[in-house]
Write a structure and sequence with these properties.
- The complex is a heterodimer of chains A (about 300) and B (about 240).
- Chain A has about 300 residues and is mainly β.
- Chain A has helices at about 5-15, 280-285, 290-305; strands at about 20-25, 30-35, 40-45, 50-55, 60-65, 70, 75-85, 90-95, 95-100, 105-115, 120-130, 140, 145-150, 155-165, 165-175, 180-190, 195-205, 210-220, 225-235, 235-245, 250-260, 265-275.
- In chain A, the strands form 2 sheets. In chain A, strands 3, 4, 7, 10, 12, 13, 15, 17, 19 and 21 form a 10-stranded mixed beta sheet that branches. A 6-stranded parallel β-barrel of chain A has the order 1-5-8-11-9-6.
- In chain A, strand 1 (about 20-25) and strand 2 (about 30-35) form a beta hairpin.
- The radius of gyration of chain A is 20 Å and the shape is globular.
- Chain B has about 240 residues and is α/β, with parallel strands linked by helices.
- In chain B, the strands form 2 sheets. In chain B, strands 6-7-8-3-9-10 form a 6-stranded mixed beta sheet, with helices on both faces.
- The chains are: A mainly beta (about 300), B alpha/beta (about 240).
- The interface of A and B includes residues 287, 291 and 298 of A.
Chain lengths: ~300, ~240
Amino acid sequence: MNKITQTLLGLVSDWTGSFTGAYNIREDGACAGRQSSEHIHIEPKEGAPGLVIRIDPEAQHETVYIPACVTHSDVNDLVYNDFYVGAGADVTIVAGCGVHSDGEEEARHNGIHRFFVEKGARVLYQEKHVGTGTGAGLRRIDPVSDIHLAEDAVLEMDTIQIGGVDRTDRKTTAQLAARAKLIIHESILTEGDQTAHTDFTVSLDGEDSSVDLVSRSVAKGNSRQEYHSRILGNNRCTGHSECDAILVGSGKVNAAPELFAGHLDASLIHEAAIGKIAGEQIIKLRTLGLTEEEAEERIIKGFLQE
Amino acid sequence: MLVLEHLAWELPDGEPILKDISLTVPNGKLAVVTGPNGGGKTSLAKLIAGLEKPNAGRILLDGKEITELDITQRAKAGIAYAFQQPVRFKGLSVRDLLELAAGGSLSEQELCVILGQVGLCAQDYADRQVDGSLSGGESKRIEIATVLARKDAALLIFDEPEAGIDLWSFSGLIDVFQRIKRTKQGSALIISHQERILQIADEIIVIADGEVRSAGPREEILPTLLENEKAGQCPLEGGPLYE
């Protein structure tokens, strides 16, 4: 793998020269390294670019790394990854993505992930996105996640865009069976003329299923973010969504949460707050010795839970 | 040592808030500023900490003039300030805030000592967010802890530390201030209406209508204050001391 990939891997997946256990490293649409483990099997997908990742029920507290990197402009990397998580498995999936461009043309990664999480399985999915390089070509990351949680399955998604991505269009859909639980923490930072569009649709189909969807966004410069969430309470269930945004400079955020209660015992809540950093927060940190710029940076870092 | 010389401050519309304030808080002394609400006590604290700039006068800390320093520079000069209304942060933990105050990472033991002084257990609170999930009293105690965490502070300022604190924690707070008296090389300035805090002061400064009405050792000032309070009178002026 090239040096840019190594740098991007360090940023998005805590790469320190190697991965332990199962992994697949994708570089500019090709495989730059792959390894299965005893309980996690990674195979190429038939008929389309991508992977099939099968996680046995015996996989307990194991981690699989599926990072993808685009290292130059004029690359449009489309990948379909399917995750099959066996009943009762307990795994962490690290799936960061870095896009680098020093050229004039666009560099794009479009990862389409499907998750089939069987009964009682627990998955922690971590996804960090970053764009680097000095080229005028746009750096795009457009992830699509399609989640199917069986009874008692739990999926926790921590996704963060730490900067440098010029355009992102993120779509997540989920269907939850009885007592399944979905927890999503999304953090997005945009700067300059960047735009981010994020869209969640979660169907709480099973009795006592639940979703906790927390989105934190920071729109700096002249950037713009669009947020849309749709929680469908189709059974006795609980749904909570929280959308908080900080504006810096001329940043703009449009938040459009939507709740649908299709059952008498669907309990759905939405909270939203958009505004600039509170002046008193800056002042408090300055009384601790930080400059105004350091205070702003620290508040944003904490807000995005970096 | 904190020295204020002829300090004055007015609102942008010209309304005077503080008029010709001069006072000294020697090192190792605990001074309590008291007086009626709206008299200018919090404004005085904000001027000292640099949140507001005076229209006239000078502020000296350990002999160096700090009047023109901004908030950050004053913090670096050794001024630590606990706000009357604690600030909440979505995304900062108690540990984060205290480490920012301390200027570096804190061990579990150090966190335990700092939070223990305000009656909180580090194990329960260190990783909690400093946001709306904390009660008013908890937030206030953490606000006070941010001052206690400051290392090498030359002046500790507490603006109404008793506000929102329950009785049990208040007793602990008195212990904290007594410990500050015993161990601090610098000075401490507490804005308070509380008699128990006045009782441990080395110096008491009474401010009303933006002016120092009386100032001196506790033994001289407190008896008059208490007598007048019993009679519902403000010292020197005859009006109510506490609204």
